[in-house]
Specification:
- Helices cover about 35% and strands about 25% of the residues.
- By secondary structure, the protein is α+β, with helices and mostly antiparallel strands.
- The protein has 2 domains: about 5-120, Aminopeptidase (3-Layer(aba) Sandwich); about 135-300, Gcn5-related N-acetyltransferase (GNAT) (Aminopeptidase, 3-Layer(aba) Sandwich).
- Strands 11-12-13-14-15-10-16 form a 7-stranded mixed beta sheet, sandwiched between helices. A 6-stranded mixed beta sheet has the order 2-5-6-8-17-9.
- The longest helix is centred in the middle third of the chain and has 19 residues, at about 175-195.
Length: about 350
């Protein structure tokens, strides 16, 4: 009997990107955010260092780990898979590849003197690992079709969609070359109002440059004004509206409801099977907004690899310091937040 094949772990290179993506595409539990191109997006837009690893057996890829290393004197050192996005972590076809990539990540935690490695799994790899489970992913099945979905969302939601139509708001697919800047203007204002630093516009430009065939920009307009806009990311039969924003001036006309219905109905008509509203804290305002569409929560399990004696990171939004920082940010002039936000948020994955 021949000895069992050994697993080798190597770093992703430009020469192995196509092989990496081919492996990801074959996995039923994949996420678009595990594609190799996100390494380039994150490096170009945020200046962070990708540490993407793949596991081979007999020359074939059996697992991948898209990982990004952070190092800053103020924010410290840590590893995240995948930062700025809702999912990530280890994607493996075999237990041996999974275990090898986990061991590699643990070794990176210690060799880089990182405080932790955060693996943004939906389903965890080890119930013994410390984890955060306070977030859920909200998804709606599109299999019933547009007509049935319209009936199932209920009278309240239908009336809000009609309200936008009655106030002459129109929805169309956006042109990134013309409409991405308009989206960013509204998005930046929304983030300021929430008290959250905004991404640089370059991030969205890099995403569209890297994945033009996976993205769809939807815009809601009142004449020449932008009332709302959103960006969906598609992968197989799955689509997620990852970023969305509405103009304060038009909120009374429910442009966000028109935006979401257009995205849902268009995806259903295109034959997609699942529409994801993104992640939320159970019971929060965003959670209730998504729930009214019929979205069903799926628990997320973000697992942590720690150095010896390390502790799971904890960022509590109820902390008085966080509440104070949020209130201060909400009062800053919008142009100032567009300057100050990107250098801050690049360290907040």
């Amino acid at each position: 009997m021949s000895p069992p094949a050994s697993v080798t772990v190597e770093e992703l290179t430009s020469a192995t990107e196509a092989e990496w993506d081919a492996f990801v595409a074959e996995q039923p539990r994949r996420s678009h955010y595990q594609r190799a191109g996100w390494a380039r997006v994150i490096r170009n837009a945020f200046g962070q260092k990708p540490a993407y690893r793949l596991a081979r057996v007999d020359g074939r890829i059996e697992g991948v780990l898209p990982l990004v290393a952070f190092a800053n004197p103020l924010f410290g050192r840590y590893l995240v898979s995948v930062p700025y996005l809702n999912r990530g972590g280890i994607l493996a076809a075999t237990d041996r590849a999974r275990d090898a990539l986990r061991a590699e990540a643990q070794q990176l935690v210690e060799s880089t003197r990182s405080a932790f490695c955060e693996l943004r799994h939906v389903e965890g790899i080890d119930p013994a690992l410390p984890a955060r489970e306070n977030k859920v992913s909200m998804s709606l099945s599109l299999e019933p079709g547009t007509e049935v979905l319209w009936k199932e969302i209920g009278a309240k939601v239908r009336n809000l969609v009609r309200k936008a139509e009655k106030n002459d708001l129109t929805v169309r697919e956006g042109d990134p070359a013309k409409d991405l800047g308009r989206f960013y203007d509204v998005f930046a204002e929304n983030m300021r109002d929430l008290g959250t630093p905004v991404y640089a516009r370059r991030f969205f430009e890099e995403v569209f440059r890297e994945f033009p065939d996976s993205l769809r920009l939807s815009v809601v307009e009142s004449g020449s004004d932008l009332a709302a806009a959103g960006i969906c990311i598609r992968d197989g039969g799955f689509t997620e509206i990852h970023w969305a924003a509405s103009s304060r001036e038009y909120l009374k006309f429910s442009p966000n409801m028109a935006l979401y219905w257009e995205a849902i109905s268009q995806a259903a008509e295109a034959g997609l099977t699942e529409f994801c509203f993104g992640r939320s804290t159970e019971g929060s305002g965003p959670y209730r907004f998504k729930k009214q569409w019929g979205a069903v929560p799926t628990p997320l399990r973000w697992e942590y690899l720690l150095p010896p004696g390390g502790e799971t990171p904890g960022l509590n939004p109820d902390n008085p310091k966080f509440r104070l920082a949020t209130r201060v940010w909400q009062r800053l002039p919008l142009p100032l937040t567009r300057v100050l936000g990107p250098p801050i948020v690049r360290h907040l994955p």
